[in-house]
Every structure is written in structure tokens, then in C-alpha cells.
Sequence to fold (145 residues):
Amino acid sequence: MTLKIRRLKASDRSAWEPLWQAYLTFYGVDLAPEVCDVTWCRLVLEKGAMFALGAYDADRLVGFAHCLFHPATWAIADRLYLEDLFVAADARGLGAGRALMDAVFAAAEAQNADKVYWQTEASNRRARALYDQVGKLTAYVRYER
Fold:
């Protein structure tokens, strides 16, 4: 596999959509079409805080990373939140996830972000195997309402 990582653009929607739907299915989420539409628009907006990186094997999109830069109360520099990372089932184990993570870290460094952070389900062993190589597990507990 020869991977190329690049920022997704509006013309990539048809390649992104099946991966996005597979990602949502993996997490048991069913989003309304208008949510997916707005998400896509946010990801490809040139000057927006959100952006998407794609992993390409030749001309085929095999994975994506959705990210968001934001200010923080504990730092002067922005932080980068990696909200979604997904690799197609038939491309897993071939380095796409690691290449996407490396590209996310490079994007953070290019913008002088002081931290990159992300989360996953505790039971997501495959993702956690990668995350344990590139990051540090924290002791924080997440709440929602």
C-alpha cells in the first residue's frame, strides 16, 4: 500500500460518505442526513476550525481523520481535538491509521498547538493498540448531558 495523506476537499464527498457511514455504524449511531451535510460542509470549509484529512491508497480513500482546533483556558496556544478517526476494514493493519495520526500531529505542530487529544471507547482494542503507541492514556473521566 502506497499511502498519500491530504486534506479533504468538497469533491471528495462521494468517497468520504461510505466511510463516514461505516464509522457511524461501528459506533451504533444513526445521524439525520442534514447533520451529515452540515458536518461535511464544516470539514471542507477552507477557513473553518474543523478540517478533515484523508488517507489515499492510489486514488481510493481508505481512511479519514476529522479534527478541530480550539482555544483553551489552560494555555495560550490552541489545542487540536481529533474527533473522528476511521480506516476501511479492508485497509486496517496497513499503516493508514498511523499515517493519519502522524499527519494530525504535523498539522498541530504547523499551527503551534500545544496539545493533540482524542478519545475512544474503552472496548475499542484495535484503535487503542495504535493510540497506546502514539499517545498517553490519561486518568480523566468523561461526562455528558
